[in-house]
Amino acid sequence: MRKKIVAGNWKMNTLPAEGVELAKGIVAGRGEVCSCVNFIVCPPFTHLSMVAEALKGSDIELGAQNCAAEAKGAYTGEVAASMIAALGCKYVILGHSERRQYYGETSATLNKKMEQAYANGLTPIYCVGENLEEREAGKHFDVVKAQIEEVVYNLTEEQFKNLVIAYEPVWAIGTGKTATADQAQEIHAYIRKVLADKFGAAAAECPILYGGSCKPTNAAEIFAKEDVDGGLIGGAALKAGDFLAIGKGFAK
Length: 252
Ligand code: PGA
Fold this sequence. Notes:
CATH architecture: Alpha-Beta Barrel
CATH superfamily: Aldolase class I
Distance between the termini: 11 Å
Strand order of the largest sheet: 1-2-3-4-5-6-7-8
Bound molecules: 2-phosphoglycolic acid
Low-confidence stretches: none
Radius of gyration: 17 Å
Order of helices and strands: EHEHEHEHHEHHHEHEHEH
Helix content: 40-55%
CATH topology: TIM Barrel
Structural class: alpha/beta
């Protein structure tokens, strides 16, 4: 049985006090959603310790949106995996398309970040996904395959057991356009096959989340698909009610 996960990627939103309020709202309503759903929130770095405090006593887990490729030292402005782990993070989002696109993150950088995450006991939520041009040219399978081969294939079997994948078509992120449930299933099944080619049966245990304009009104249909194990949620993660309602989308 794969984990069911709903992870909130707050991106560069909320001031610290607003983030604490949001976290408290999620904690307050959490009981309305099946305990079988694992909720993760990923606030900005600046809010991590305050949000960790607000989540205390609940089963909602904490993640960061990024970490440095190096362990420590003279890297002005960077935040090390050890630092976010020390604040209570269990997860770190790596390879988000916004990081790839706006900050030039390459597979070479991401390999180093993955190493740092594992060295500090964090579970990476590794993002893959094609842009519109690639989708229209029918290249989406090749794009996600390369993103997996260049990074995930370098993991050990042990590391692979602690990995979450998020498939996020760039054309669906923040656009209000969602992949159809069938489109999501098609590529999630493909991703699982690519993972199985390298890691065999362990691929059946790897949670693969869908991300891109996921909201309470479409989550249930997408999550009903066999190879979709939850969602990485941006905009709709900024309202406690919507975030929790997405968790109610699991019928299986
Ligand atoms: P969105 O973002 O839900 O706002 O489309 C998802 C993500 O980028 O993680």
